[in-house]
Amino acid sequence: MTAQHPSLKATLGGATILAVPFLWFFDWQTWAWICVGIFYALIIAGWFSQALEVYRANKATPQSPFKSDFVTSRAVPSASEELGEDLEDFGEEIWQGNKRIRFAYRNAVSDGTDREVSVRKVMSAGSGHDDDIYFQGYCHLRNEPRTFRLDRVKGRKVVDTATGEIGTLRQVLGIKRRLSR
Where does the WYL domain start and stop, copy by copy (predicted)? Predict the structure, then answer.
């Protein structure tokens, strides 16, 4: 999402609403005009600073809402390479298999990215609430095995890349029991 540039017209309009009564009160004297000129210079400098921040923020992010950071041109590793011994078990295994899914994910620092993952395992670590459900698999964006928390999947919705089906992780993977209690 791109940020909007601040409106110079609205900013100067607000400054004028303040400047005209000031000038009128002091009988349009020269020193009052100088004060208003300094006031306008500060207002325009503040507006320029905001516009520059917005420009830099927009330059750093993709302009189209449909752009994605999916990596599609790299070779897909074999299943044995995908799931190395790097992944830990987090508790009771709920599902095991191989299903490629796509979803919007936010990590611990709230950076949101679209991910495409070949899921190998779904596990419950304790109470079974959404923040205790993890799934492991090969992340095609990062090109390495990763573990994901279900509660960090945006809207808890995933897409099956083979069929285009959209649903919860449980629905897409065909898990019969509920993931959260």
Answer: 97-156
